Amino acid sequence: MQLxxxxxxxxxxxxxxxxxxxxxxITIALTANSWYAGLKEDQDEELLLRQLQQSLTVDQEQLSNxxxxxxxxxxxxxxxxxxLQSVEPFTEEFAPYFNSLIRYQxxxxxxxxxxxxxxxxxxxxxxxxxxxxxxxxxEDDVPLLQAMAINQTFFSLEMAQPYxxxxxxxxxxxxxxxxxxxxxxxxKSDGYLENLSLQKLRSxxxxxxxxxxxxxxxxxxxxxxxxxxxxx
Length: 232
Hints:
Helix content: over 70%
Strand order of the largest sheet: 1-2
């Protein structure tokens, strides 16, 4: 009986209305929180994409310049090989060509933005194709570039420079910068310089040019994908 009186005394319409208001309030709060989280994620994605775009644009330009220099070096080394295989005497016009044989360049791609992305989670990039191209660039192609840099450094420091320091003299005047053999007849006859030149030429033809072209192409695909995402 007492329970019946209590139940009859409750304003059920008011109570149900209060419950409904609470439910609606919670739903609105959850929706707003989800919307804000999505907005924050979109903003983070855009910021990271712009950082990647900026760094990769610089990298692409530097790699393109390095590729152009490599093609010029290829022509210099071809000239050296042709000289060594001919009966022509050494002349000072060939001295600068030896710079291309002994010089090494270390080209790289800035990895900090991608490392940040990995920490945040690759899922932050909503476009699946762009996400795949980014992973392919940094996890497949960039290591090839790093390995090539190690190879070039070893060739120069361990194979070329010791020989040149022993058998050549360096002239650094701007108008005549290059390497002059102390005894051209000796360096021509010992075969080492020719083998060194042919090895560098093979590396350029079979590895280095291809790696540069591959990385530059991969960067282009990523930059195109980023541009499409930022303009949508």
